Amino acid sequence: MPPPLSLPTPRPSTNSTSLMPPPTTTKAPTSLTPKAKKRVKVALTPGHSMMDWGALKSSGKDLRGVDSLMRVTPSILKQHNKRDDAWSSFNGKVYNITPYIEFHPGGEKELLRVAGRDGTKLFAATHAWVNVDFMLDACLVGFMVSEPAS
């Protein structure tokens, strides 16, 4: 029976023609090393998982809170900045985020940071992999427009 195959043990190169840089053993000082912000998730109450959110979205229950799609100005958006009445805009679309607050994995406090304002930049920085239009489609209130000229 032939002996089992094995890979040769790599040896450190002593010639200067190697294309690999020499190994380093020093680390950058910790004060210069950027610290990644740790994502914090909160414990959601039973019945408030993403699966439960999906079921609520497809239940037919009114999550918009408006009769028809609206044109929303920044001043109108700013009025909806409370826990029980929270709207936010993402990519020019305005959503009633009030029903989603209890389902948000980052917690109520984090979601309310964008209540009454444009949350596009913060959303992109923290949720680049999430499709906001799909996540909040049942909560669409309308579209952002500029203030009327006076």
UniProtKB/TrEMBL annotation:
Q: Which residues form the Cytochrome b5 heme-binding domain?
A: 69-145
Question: Could you tell me which SMART domains the record lists for this protein?
Answer: Cyt-b5 (SM01117)
Signal peptide positions (record): none
Extract one GO molecular function annotation from the record: metal ion binding
The domain of life for this entry's organism is: Eukaryota
Segments of this protein annotated with the region Disordered: 1-37
Sorted alphabetically, which InterPro entries does this protein's record hold?
A: Cyt_B5-like_heme/steroid-bd (IPR001199), Cyt_B5-like_heme/steroid_sf (IPR036400), Cyt_B5_heme-BS (IPR018506), Cytochrome_b5/Flavoprotein_Rdt (IPR051872)
Q: Which UniProt keywords apply?
A: Heme, Iron, Metal-binding
Cellular component annotations (GO), alphabetically ordered: cytoplasm
A Pfam family name for this chain? Cyt-b5
Stored PROSITE patterns:
CYTOCHROME_B5_1, CYTOCHROME_B5_2
Point to the regions of Pro residues compositional bias: 1-11
Keyword Cell wall biogenesis/degradation applies = no
- Similarity remark: Belongs to the cytochrome b5 family.
Q: What is this protein called?
A: Cytochrome b5
Q: Which organism is it from?
A: Sistotremastrum suecicum HHB10207 ss-3
